[in-house]
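Problem: given the chain below (637 residues), write out its structure.
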Amino acid sequence: MNHFLRICLLVCMAAHASAQNKPLSNRIANYTIDVVLDADKKTLKGKEILVWKNTSTDNISELQFHLYLNAFKDKNSTFMKESGGQLRGDMIDASESINFGAISIESMQVHNGETLTKKIRFIQTDDLNENDKTVISVPLSKPLKPAESITLDINFTAKLPQIFARTGFADNYFLVGQWFPKIGVYEPAGVRYAIKGQWNCHQFHAHTEFYADFGTYKVSMTVPEDFQVAATGVFQSEVPHTNNTKTITYMAEDVHDFAWTASPRFVISERQWKHVKIKAVMQPEHSGSTERYFQAAITALTYFEKNLGKYPHKVLSLIDPPINGAGSGGMEYPTFITCGTSWGLPEGLRFPEIVTVHEFGHQYFQGMLATNEFEESFLDEGFNQYYEGRIMDENYTPGAQVNFLGFTINDMETSRISYTTMKNPKITEIFRNAWQYPKGTYSIMTYTKTATWLRTLENMIGRSTMDEVMQTYFIRWRFKHPCVRDFINVVNEIVPERTGNRFGDDMNWYFEQVLYKAPVLDYALKSLSNAENGSSVMGQFTVERLGDMILPTEISVWFADGKQEIIPWNGKEKSKTYKFDKAISAVKVDPQNKLLLDLNFNNNSKAIEPSTLAFKKYAMKIMFWIQNMMQWMASMA
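Solution.
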């Protein structure tokens, strides 16, 4: 190789390496943490170095931090008051003080500078609950100027709670999440909804998750020598000590959180998928689900890479909780998700797959887009629920959720039913702070109604256009904390052009109904009849709009002569009658069931001779279950 070519090759290699090492995010909050776990006392002792950069044009004279573990301090925290000491059916055992958790900052100091410890004060900007200790304010004597960074040395201690709400201990199993003093997000004027520069650092509520800046994490965890550890990021080293402990270090880049788990019981196996090392961290009794976890993770990785974009990290850890630590299951952290299964679970009950697919999806919406889950929880949970439905229904059939003893349930079907069967679907709009939803509506609004309106939008504009919208939104806004306005702008940019303005110059009318207000959609076929008119037969039908929501649709008309006609209907009229000069056999509004927001599909159609297909279908299912029950009883005799 001549000298010139060698130089060109070296330049190309250097450029490639530089591109590979280029940060994916702005890396505002960067942590180095050394933490010691006392497995007997269920405590943490940590030393944290935080380097935080002021990326605004403001002079910042105050810092704000989350102390999430104080949500479990006592029954008087906002989280405990709102939740009643439970999450998703798991409850804290409040009879013993060891089951509560807390975090305390022992010291905070500007590196080689001002001591801030005595300046720390608790604030409660959401609900004025003086007993809530989950957010602190720290005044600075010397304001931090634009583009300046501050380095803080923080010493803290923490007591982990009994696991019932994501984090804590269950015997000698530890899932350590939201465990360190974590700086909030400073939003300059014009970013998201900020009118002026301000801290976005909400209290920990029963129905809120998290929001944080991207950065780097180097975390060294000292644990008993017989414990195994898995964590966010990439394993760096393991150093044994003479006191029967060891220190394990992980490094993560371009993430906004760090979680870890430790236990002496883990059975760990690995699987390589393209550039990603997948690690299954299993309970021994759940080893039968290991392959199911791997396959579900690979299915999700493949689907998201094809439809949204590349997963940028080199690792993915799948954490399997024990039964008494199930409250830590079904949770997402960067490169690290907690799953859930049970011993002997039949393959037709696809709960391990559902949880794995769902939690992996958060690597995109929560991990990379990192929207504000306090204020716009639906942008993560609902968008992810929509993709869960797509992935499960397209890869696990028949019966994406359940295929057992002849009974099948699909994923998107359950989302729709969750919304359409709620007692009062008009009770609240989706767009509101997560802690301000009326009781019992958070999960429906955030997860299932959002998934339902997204699937309805897809059905209206077409899958290819929807995919272009979602991919454009993801690629444009990854690592940038978008808000729903940013998503709507993408929709308004793409949909009119791809659909020939069939839905207007923009789609604001759609979002006004599904996000910012709470009308309901219910189209119905009021009547259908044929009448003799001399020597001919006249057919007519009347459609109704029973709800306040208006979406364009179609009406399919089947005639007695075997022909069919599709009629467009804008859906605006409260009632509209159509007449024809020939006999009609059947009519259906929204014949392809595109409008999943419709509360009642059963009133969408009528026929001159009612169909018996639905009755026969369910009669066969009932008979099938009776036969299986009789066979089971006979085998037990």
